[in-house]
Each structure stands twice: as C-alpha cells, then as structure tokens.
Amino acid sequence: MSDKITVAGVSVDTRHWIGGRRVGSAGTFADVSPIDGSVLGEIARGGAAEVEAAVAAAREAFPGWAATPRAERARILHAIADGVEKRLEELAIVETHDNGALLRSHRRGVMPRVAHNFRFFADWLLTLEHEDFETRGHTNQVSWDPAGPCVLITPWNAPLMLATWKVAPALAAGNTVILKPAEWTPLTASLLADIAAEAGLPAGVLNVVQGYGSEIGDALTSHPDVRRISFTGSVPTAKRIAASAAPNLTPLSLELGGKSPLLVFADADLDLAVDLAVEQYDNAGQVCLAATRFLVEESVAEEFTRRFVERAGALRQGDPRDEATDIGPNIHPRQLEKIDGFVRRAVADGARVVIGGHPGEGQYYAPTLLTDVAQDSEIVQEEVFGPVLTLQTFTDEDEAVRLANDTRFGLAATLATGDPERASRVTEQLVAGTVWVNCFFVRDLQAPFGGSRQSGVGREGGTWSFDFYCDLKNTVTAPNGWNSHG
Fold first, then answer.
1. Which of 241, 453, 455, 476 makes an SS bond possible with 411, Cβ 3.0 to 4.6 Å?
2. Which of 183, 255, 383, 460 is catalytic?
3. Can you tell me the distance from the alpha carbon of 148 to that of 322, in angstroms, rounded to the nearest whole number?
4. Per-residue pLDDT of the chain (486 residues; tens, 9 = 90+)
5. Is 337 annotated in the active site?
6. Rounded to whole angstroms, how far apart are CA atoms 350 and 137?
7. Separation of alpha carbons 466 and 472, rounded Å
8. Which residues, 6 or more positions from 34, have their beta carbon under 8 angstroms from its beta carbon?
C-alpha cells in the first residue's frame, strides 16, 4: 500500500509526522469524502506506540526550541505562513474534499486566515511584555516561560484553521507540539507538517499523530510528560479528557461548542437581521459559534419569518467545489443521522417545520427552520451541529434575556437592534464568551476567545494564549539587592 495518496492532483502523505520524519502504523483507517462518499485513502492509524514516540520527540526537542530567541521563532513562524500562502490552492482543494466545506470559502477566507494565524502570533511574540511594577520599592518583573510538550486535539469542521489557532501560539511561546487531527479530516494536518519542515522548524517541535478517538486520545491526554492540553469539540469528550488529565493536573483549554441565540428586536434593521440569520447556515450549520436559536420580538416575528424563508429558499445546496454553491454536505453519515434524529424527535414533540426538515441525497441535509418549540425541549437545549435552526418569540427585553441565557451553554450570542442603549443593557446581561451586535463572526486574534458554562474552560487569543501556553513567572528584586556583603 502506498504511503501517499493523490487528492484532486495534490499529493498527501498518509503517515504520521514524528521527530522530523514520516512514521507508518500497522493499521489504517479509511478517510471518506463527504462530497460523494468516496474513499480518499487509507490513513496510518496510531496507538500507544506512536503516542509514546511523539511525546518523546517533543520532549527531546523542547529545550532547544524553548531556548531559541524570540526573533528566530518568529522568523520560522512567518516562513510557515509563507509556505501556507504558497500552497494555498492545494490546501483549499484538499480540505474541501476532506470536510465538504465550500472551496470558495477555503480559497478566500479560511486558508488566508491559516497564514494569518502564524503571522499574528509571530508578531505578538515580539511585543509580548508586561510593564514592571513596584511593591514597597521591590521590582516585580513578569515573564512567560515555555511550558513544555503540548497536546492539541482539533475538530473536523474547520480542520486546519482551528488547528493553527492552537499550533501557532503554542510554537510561538516556545513549546513543542503533538497535534492530533480529527479522524474524519486528517489530510491538511499532514500537509502542514510538510510546510513546517520546509520552513525550517526543527525536528520534533511539531509532531502529527493520526488515530481514532480514545485509541490514541487517552494515551495522549494521560501522558505525564505533557504540560498542556487544548481541545475543541464536544462536552462528553472534554469530560473524558479532563478525567484523563486529572492525575497529572495537566492544565486544559477547552472550547466546547454551544447553543447560541440570535436576538432580534423590533427596532432592528430587519434586512440586516435576516442576513445575520441566513448566515447561520454557513458550513452546513457545522459552526460552534452559530446562533441556532432565533429569539424574535413578537411584533416583527411574522415579517422576519417571511423574509427569512424567502432568503433561505434562494440558497443553493450542492457540490462544495462549485462556485455557485452556498451549502455543502454534512461531514459523515453518522452526523447526518444525528441531525435527522433531532429534527424527527422535535416534530414528534410538536415542533412545526417552516422549511426543510429532511435529508437530501448523499450527506446533504436541507436547511431547516423549526418553530412552535418549547424552551425545555431537546431541540432548543442541545447542540445539533447541522443546518437546523429554531425560532421563538418574546415580548420584552427581560424575556429575551431569560430565554437567551436558559441553556447550559454560553459560547456566543448575536444581537440585532437599532438602539445602542438597549444593546448595552442586553449584552451586559448575556452569558457568552463573545457577543456580536449587528454583526456576526468578526474574530480578531488579539481578543479573548472561549466560552462560559459548558461551552468551555479558559480563553485563548493575544496575550491570553501565551498565558495558557506558558508558565508565568514573577521575579521580585529587592531595592538594595545588588549590595555586596563580602
């Protein structure tokens, strides 16, 4: 069996990347494209042996990389960004085949953002400092010390972009990395390893280990030589990771999705509100930040719904490689079955289907809007992670806030209103890591990112990323500490 596959003319190595070289495994798993169900290739299936080798490589490489001057680390990260930009088209094509997201989005937004992730943290590293301060004449000096080998476990909905949100700051901070990509979308992580090597990243600083769920995840997260774990995914998996990491007290950063609201007040620009609402079907609804619960003021609900149905009905669902396509497939038959199960149970409980409500051919699910849903129902309380939205109404601000906050999640919220004072009052009361007012999905890497409640633990972005990926040290020097007593 060949160690490489070709995806739409792009060669991808299917082996792990450990200690600066390609490493195979006795077993493999099939990587299937959600576009048409075709097998893209057989991927090396790692286990305990590959984990041990990767952690050992990261541990060995750590002292040298941690001691590398900031300017040199930044230079290499910029070189990785150069490599991403050079191979942008290849990365876009491979990722579209692997996870089914729109090729036009990968070309114009996602892959340029991947390069930006490296450039941003390279530049932030060079300006990272804390102003010294005094305590009774003693000088306090804060520094960021690299923590050590980091395990980064990443999801399938935006594989390379979300991986590099973690990889870039971890490397910039002086850590070594073991990246475990989602088993449904492993290919661009393999290409990233090639790009990093070509950019001059020393062997062992970045390692990529592929594998299925707990077969490899438990070994990674329970390893005593791992100093940080960052995970993006589901709450049940996060609980398992936390339990695995607990004996070693390994610090965790967890971003766990949500059930975010879109609040539409009667004073909002309804066309803007509808634009924001339709945008929630992005990536076939497979966006953790998506505002899947529409909360609309009763007096404008009928008109909002009419305009939304008209706009959503014009969306084109189909092959994500087609420039005209607006919504592609869902990632996997298992995920499609899960989505449809949510909808069928909601309808059985009394929900009314406004649009959609059924799967299409292959792995496509029709954009769906449900109304007449109870606040305590499964469809309102649980994350579907597909193109399924609900609509409820409210009569005043208090009810809007109560409904918005009435879930176990708190990742994001979106607010449409024409009143700045109302926006201030409402956002102050919302439980969310990010609140967008009259906009959606505006994400600046210098801002803190993360969720409240069961949407996550910790924040990343800007200095917050370095706070997580480093051990912060405060050095206190006495005012006369240099006097000789010899």
1. 455
2. 255
3. 43
4. 579 999 999 999 999 999 999 999 999 999 999 999 999 999 999 999 999 999 999 999 999 999 999 999 999 999 999 999 999 999 999 999 999 999 999 999 999 999 999 999 999 999 998 888 888 889 999 999 999 999 999 999 999 999 999 999 999 999 999 999 999 999 999 999 999 999 999 999 999 999 987 789 999 999 999 999 999 999 999 999 999 999 999 999 999 989 999 999 999 999 999 999 999 999 999 999 999 999 999 999 999 999 999 999 999 999 999 999 999 999 999 999 999 999 999 999 999 999 999 999 899 999 999 999 999 999 999 999 999 999 999 999 999 999 999 999 999 999 999 999 999 999 999 999 999 999 999 989 999 999 999 999 999 999 999 999 999 999 999 987 666 554
5. no
6. 69
7. 9
8. 99, 100, 328, 329, 330, 331, 332, 363
Of the candidates 150, 288, 297, 383, the residue annotated as catalytic is 288
CA separation for the pair 189, 17 (Å, rounded): 10
C-alpha atoms less than 13 angstroms from C-alpha of 291 in its C-beta half-sphere: 32
Distance CA 150, CA 164 (A): 13
Pairing between strand 150-153 and 228-232?
A: parallel
Q: Which two three-digit tokens encode residue 192?
A: 């990233």
